[in-house]
Every structure is written in structure tokens, then in C-alpha cells.
Design brief:
The structure is a single chain. The chain has seven helices and 15 strands. It is of the alpha/beta class and 242 residues long. It folds into two domains: 116 residues, Response regulator (Rossmann fold); 104 residues, LytTr DNA-binding domain (OB fold (Dihydrolipoamide Acetyltransferase, E2P), Beta Barrel). The strands form three sheets. Strands 7-6-10-9-8-12-11 form a seven-stranded antiparallel sheet. A five-stranded parallel sheet has the order 2-1-3-4-5, sandwiched between helices. It is elongated, with a radius of gyration of 21 Å. The model has no long low-confidence stretch (mean pLDDT 88).
């Protein structure tokens, strides 16, 4: 049975699609979400086989959310859309599946059958953004959309990925991020300085050299990040340091 997450900001459309998927007896709904930020968190934690994703959503659209997923681990994506046939044809040309709103049970059944028989990853490269314009984060009982150039550093620990922005002091609580360090490294201005740390080059105030070919970065806001031997040479070369 396919494990699925339904992501749509319209409650009625979301509930209707869930009921139709249950009627196929081929899909288990493991979560439903009303926005892309919540959807990213559920996708990363629950690892579904497929997500049924609305395109037109506030703040972060379905297409933007797609670009925020790790290409190596992303599930199958079925767009649920009210776009006209010309837009739908564009999705088909990029090997996307789609369902037109209002959802027809017969069309949905065909999609589920194709999903079950599909064993190869779909090619989403035609629609993926090369660089992300906003980074979804959570903190202080709210969702926060951060511009990449506002981030001083990002790091991971047992509780997930966190970011520190240039508007935070070093003593303030960090914001949790729904994206992996790999996606942040590939699709933002952040560079790797440690296996668990990324840094914004423009936020570096000082690079303090330590023993054993290690180093430490101090940012403009006073936050610190370790630099491992593996990345120290590249960091020195970037800034022409001897």
C-alpha cells in the first residue's frame, strides 16, 4: 500500500481528496497539511511514497516546495491543480503527473495504478529552482520565511537543522529549518565549513586558527562555528589567506 501525504491549503479540497484516496484501497494517508512549511516537516519525518501537492498555496507554492526537497530522497509528486490544459501539458512534458480539480475518481485511480507500477525516480529537473528565494523555518510558535542572505549560519544536531540569522544575537534561540544541510548548501549562498555546519561567507568577521589544523569562525553577530581540517584549505583559498 502506498503511503501518502496530502498538502493543500483548502480544507474542503484536502478532505475530499483524502476520502477519494481511501476509496481506492491502495493508499494509506499518513498525514495531511494545509501549507508547504508543515508539508516539508512531514515529508522529512515520515518519508512518504507519494505526496499529493496543490500548486496554488500562499507564501510557498507547490512548485517552490518541490525545489526545497532533497532530490535524492524526495517522494513521487502528484500535482493537484486547477490550471488549464496548456499548463498541464507543460507538466506532462516534464514527466510530472497531475490531477485536475475537481478530482475525478477515475482519473485518480489511473494515477494510483501508475504510481504502484513505477519503480524509477521521476525527473523533476525541468521545474526545480536552481536557487531558493525563501527558507522555511519555525520558531517562537510561528513559521518564519527567511531570505538566504539573511542567514549567518546553519547547523544540524540530533533535533534537526537550525539557522541563525543576522537579526539574531548569539544568545537568542535558533530557528528550526525544514530543509537538509545538503539542500541549503546546493541552493543558497551558504558554504560548508564542517560536516554539520554551513556558513554565509559575507557573515564571517574572523577566522581563528586553532591547533591540529582546525579553526573557528566568528560571525558578525558573535556566533561561532567550527571549521574542520577538511574544509579549512578551501576556506583559506576563498579569501586568499596564506
Amino acid at each position: 500500500m502506498l503511503k501518502a501525504i496530502v498538502i493543500d491549503d483548502e480544507l474542503y479540497a484536502r478532505e475530499e481528496l483524502i476520502e477519494l484516496l481511501k476509496e481506492t484501497a491502495e493508499v494509506e494517508i499518513i498525514a495531511s497539511c494545509s501549507n508547504a512549511v508543515e508539508g516539508l516537516q512531514k515529508v522529512n519525518s515520515l518519508k512518504p511514497d507519494v505526496i499529493f501537492l496543490d500548486i496554488q498555496m500562499p507564501q510557498i507554492t507547490g512548485l517552490e516546495m518541490l525545489s526545497m526537497l532533497d532530490p535524492e530522497t524526495m517522494p513521487h509528486v502528484v500535482f493537484v491543480t486547477a490550471y488549464d490544459e496548456y499548463a498541464l501539458q507543460a507538466f506532462e512534458d516534464n514527466a510530472f503527473d497531475y490531477i485536475l480539480k475537481p478530482v475525478e475518481p477515475g482519473r485518480l485511480s489511473k494515477t494510483v495504478k501508475r504510481l504502484k507500477s513505477s519503480i524509477a525516480k521521476r525527473d523533476y529537473s525541468g521545474l526545480l529552482q536552481e536557487q531558493l528565494e525563501l527558507i522555511p523555518c519555525a520558531g517562537y510558535n510561528r513559521f518564519i520565511l527567511v531570505k538566504p542572505d539573511e542567514i549567518e549560519m546553519a547547523f544540524s544536531d540530533q533535533s534537526g537543522v537550525h539557522v541563525i540569522t543576522n537579526m539574531q544575537s548569539s544568545t537568542e534561540q535558533t530557528a528550526g529549518c525544514s530543509l537538509s544541510l545538503k539542500v541549503l548548501e546546493e541552493k543558497t549562498c551558504l558554504i560548508r565549513c564542517h560536516r554539520q555546519y554551513l556558513i554565509n561567507p559575507t557573515a564571517i568577521r574572523e577566522i581563528k586558527l586553532l591547533e591540529n589544523s582546525l579553526a573557528e569562525i566568528i560571525t558578525c553577530n558573535g556566533s561561532t562555528a567550527p571549521v574542520s581540517r577538511r574544509y579549512l584549505k578551501a576556506l583559506k583559498d576563498r579569501f586568499s589567506l596564506s
